[in-house]
Write a structure and sequence with these properties.
The strands form three sheets. The protein has a six-stranded antiparallel beta sheet with strand order 2-1-4-5-6-7, with helices on one face. By secondary structure, the protein is of the alpha/beta class. The chain is built from twelve helices and 15 strands. Bound molecules: adenosine-5'-triphosphate (ATP).
Length: 367
C-alpha cells in the first residue's frame, strides 16, 4: 500500500500544497519550523483521522482561515482509493473515501495503516500509563473494529458514570438503579477489553523482543507486562464497593481505563533504571513490532513516517534502521530532516528516492 499523492488546503502552516509521492522513499528536508512534520501529520490524518501531535482538530486549521482539507490517493494492490478529511471551524470533521462519507469515522480506522516514529516517542516510557494504553489501543483498534467499538462504548459509559457521580456529590446519595446499570455494562465491556489486551500483548511481546535483541546485540532480557486488575478474582465486588471513594473524588477509580503496562529490562522498570540508549532501543523496538503486527494482520506494509529521528538516534541505532530500509523490510517511507545533506547521503544509492524541499509552508520536489 502506498500514498501516491496528497493535497492540502489551509492545513497548519500550508495554504496550498501538492505532493506526488514515491512509492518507496520520500525525504522532506528544510529548516526548523518549515512544515515537514506538518506534512507527516496530514498523512496521519488520512490514516487515523486525527493529528498525531495537536490535541484538538481545530488547531490544525491554518491561522486566520475557516477550514482545512487533506486529500490523498492510496494505491492498494490494484485498487486506488481517494480519501478526504476536512474540517470547517466549529463543525464536525468530515471523512470520505471514494466520495462516500462515513457514518462513523471509526469505520475508516485500520484501512490505511501508518506507523510513526517521532522524537517524543520516549514519552511512552517516561509518561504515565495513559500513553502506553493509547499506544497498544491504537494498534488493536486498527486490527479489530469490535475492540474499537467496545473501547468507545466503555469511554462513553465512563463519562456518564462520572457525570452521575459528580451530580450526586453535593447530596452524597446516588441513584442506585442507574448506577447499577452503568456498573454492569462497564464491568462487562471492561472485561472484554482487558482480555483482548492480554491476548494482544502476548502476541506482540515476542516480536518486540526480537527487534530489541537485534538493536542491542541481545545482551538484556526485555519484557512487557500487562496484568489488569479487572481480570483478578473478586474485581466486580471491589469495583462496586469503591463507590463511596468514587463519589468523593467524582470519578471512577477502578477499571481498564486505569490499566498499565510495565516495561522492564532484566526485571527492572525501564522508566526508572533504563539508560537513555536502552530507552531509545525500547521504543524503536516497540514501533518496529507495531509495523510487523500491522503488516502480518493486514497482509500489506503500513506506511512508515520517520519524523526527525536521525537527529535523535546514535550511529548504531541509525544504521540498524537504515539497514532495514536498505533490505526492503519497509514499504513506503516518509523521512523528515532539517539537514538535507545528511539524509541525501543516507539514502544515496537506494531505489525510488524523491527529495522534497519544504520552505515556510511550501513544498517542491528537488531535481
Ligand atoms: N494551525 C496553524 N496555522 C499556522 N501555522 C501553524 C499551525 N500549526 C502549526 N503551525 C506552524 O507550523 C510550524 C511548525 O511546522 P513543523 O512542526 O512541521 O516544522 P518542521 O519543519 O517539522 O520543524 P523541525 O525541523 O523543527 O521539526 C510552526 O512555525 C508553527 O507555528
Amino acid at each position: 500500500m502506498f500514498l501516491s499523492n496528497i493535497q492540502l488546503l489551509n492545513f497548519k502552516n500550508y495554504e496550498e500544497a501538492h505532493m506526488v509521492c514515491s512509492p518507496q522513499i520520500n525525504c522532506l528536508v528544510g529548516e526548523n519550523g518549515s512544515g515537514k512534520t506538518n506534512m507527516l501529520d496530514a498523512i496521519h490524518y488520512l490514516s487515523l483521522v486525527k493529528s498525531a501531535f495537536a490535541g484538538h482538530d481545530q488547531q490544525s486549521i491554518k491561522h486566520q482561515s475557516g477550514f482545512f482539507s487533506v486529500m490523498g490517493s492510496f494505491d492498494l494492490e490494484v485498487r486506488k482509493h481517494k480519501v478526504l478529511c476536512g474540517l470547517q471551524a466549529g463543525a464536525k470533521k468530515v471523512l470520505k473515501c471514494d466520495q462516500v462519507a462515513y457514518d462513523r469515522l471509526s469505520d475508516h480506522i485500520g484501512r490505511f495503516p501508518v506507523v510513526l516514529m517521532a522524537p517524543h516517542d520516549t514519552d511512552l516510557i517516561r509518561e504515565g500509563s495513559e500513553e502506553r494504553r493509547r499506544f497498544f489501543d491504537t494498534i488493536i483498534c486498527q486490527l479489530d473494529q469490535h475492540y474499537l467499538q467496545a473501547l468507545m462504548n466503555y469511554s462513553n459509559l465512563l463519562k456518564q458514570r462520572n457525570a452521575l457521580l459528580r451530580q450526586c456529590q453535593p447530596v452524597g446519595r446516588i441513584d442506585e438503579d442507574l448506577l447499577a446499570t452503568y456498573d454492569h455494562a462497564l464491568l462487562q465491556k471492561g472485561q472484554a477489553i482487558a482480555e483482548r489486551r492480554q491476548v494482544f500483548v502476548a502476541y506482540f511481546e515476542p516480536l518486540f523482543q526480537a527487534h530489541y535483541r537485534e538493536l542491542s546485540g541481545g545482551r538484556e532480557a526485555v519484557a512487557l507486562n500487562y496484568r489488569s486488575e479487572v481480570l483478578t478474582e473478586g474485581f466486580g465486588d471491589r469495583f462496586r464497593s469503591a463507590v463511596q471513594k468514587d463519589l468523593i473524588l467524582g470519578r471512577t477509580t477502578l477499571g481498564v481505563h486505569r490499566d498499565d503496562l510495565k516495561f522492564s529490562i532484566d526485571g527492572h522498570a525501564v522508566k526508572r533504571f533504563g539508560s537513555q540508549g536502552q530507552q531509545k532501543s525500547f521504543v524503536i523496538a516497540l514501533k518496529l513490532a507495531q509495523f510487523d503486527v500491522l503488516q502480518e494482520q493486514k497482509g500489506f506494509k503500513p506506511i512508515l513516517l520517520l519524523d526527525d529521528i536521525f537527529d535523535k538516534l546514535d550511529d548504531q541505532r541509525m544504521h540498524h534502521l537504515l539497514s532495514l530500509v536498505a533490505d526492503g523490510r519497509f514499504g513506503q517511507i516518509f523521512i523528515t530532516d532539517a539537514r538535507p545533506e545528511r539524509t541525501k547521503s543516507l539514502v544515496a544509492g537506494m531505489a525510488q528516492v524523491k527529495v522534497f524541499r519544504v520552505d515556510q509552508g511550501k513544498i517542491s520536489e528537488e531535481e
